[in-house]
């Protein structure tokens, strides 16, 4: 059975630099990588890297840049459901600069929170569904599809999006970043079963209606933090049903830590192996 991941697919142009440029400044990069990116996409690559079956539900279309994303997803072992196969506009593009000495990054991108792409008909046997809130109709449709089938739904809540008002009652696990505009108690009151808060190198905290706790994050030398949160979400979705909650969080922490040890969007993938 597969993990279905519904959300954003971008083209990431990633350049490593000695220092992040100041306004009006030009700098020479050390290297350039081009890869498919976006929260759901990076999570899907993670599921596949861990030896799982990953199906990405997104919108790509026919633009030449979309072919780059398709090729990268195929190379990573991710199956694709394109909700906009005839679209001619370019997919979202992210310009990323990663600082060599500590892996810190800046990202300029345009997301798909205002997308009107509708949920297509599809037939997969899913054991978990992850949504990132981009392409709102895809997120809602996938969550409703999962709820009807008793499949757990994981929300990548990196930042608040208007669709969350309708989406949260359908969510079993909300994995939030430190910048998310919402309290754990507020999310639990909206019907979310489990709330998890990640905060970079700080311990990951979690809450349910009956319990709470925190799990430490491995201490590593960070080489590249781009997509680390997405990798965490992918590992969490992959591990559902395999681990109890604290151990599941610990597993996701370890996978994300492995990602930040390596430079580049895909260099960490062969290191993780099947688990």
TrEMBL record:
Coiled coil: none annotated. It comes from the Bacteria. Residues 4-267 form the Carbohydrate kinase PfkB domain. Keywords: Kinase, Transferase. InterPro entries: Carboh/pur_kinase_PfkB_CS, Ketohexokinase-related, PfkB_dom, Ribo/fructo_kinase, Ribokinase-like. The keyword Glycoprotein does not apply. Belongs to the carbohydrate kinase PfkB family. This is Ribokinase.
């Amino acid at each position: 059975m597969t993990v279905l991941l519904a959300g954003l697919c971008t083209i990431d142009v990633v350049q490593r630099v000695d220092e992040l440029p100041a306004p009006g400044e030009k700098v020479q990069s050390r290297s350039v990588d081009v890869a498919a990116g976006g929260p759901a996409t990076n999570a899907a690559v993670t599921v596949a890297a861990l030896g799982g079956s990953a199906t990405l539900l997104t919108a790509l279309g026919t633009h030449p840049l979309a072919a780059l994303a398709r090729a990268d997803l195929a190379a990573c072992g991710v199956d694709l459901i394109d909700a906009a196969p005839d679209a001619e506009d370019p997919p979202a593009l992210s310009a990323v600069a990663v600082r060599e000495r500590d892996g810190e990054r800046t990202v300029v991108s345009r997301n798909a929170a205002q997308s009107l792409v509708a949920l297509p008909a599809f037939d997969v046997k899913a054991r978990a569904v992850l949504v990132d809130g981009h392409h709102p109709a895809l997120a809602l449709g996938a969550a409703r599809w999962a709820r009807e089938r008793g499949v757990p739904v994981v929300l990548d809540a990196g930042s608040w999006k208007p669709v969350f008002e309708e989406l949260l009652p359908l969510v079993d696990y909300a994995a939030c970043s430190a910048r998310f505009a919402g309290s754990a108690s507020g999310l639990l009151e909206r019907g979310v079963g489990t709330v998890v808060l990640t905060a970079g190198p700080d311990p990951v905290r979690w809450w349910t209606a009956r319990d709470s706790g925190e799990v430490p994050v491995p201490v590593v030398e960070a080489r590249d933090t781009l997509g680390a949160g997405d990798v965490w979400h992918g590992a969490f979705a992959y591990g559902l049903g395999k681990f109890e909650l604290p151990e599941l969080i610990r597993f996701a922490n370890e996978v994300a830590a492995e990602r930040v040890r390596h430079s580049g969007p895909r260099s960490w993938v062969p290191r993780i192996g099947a688990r």
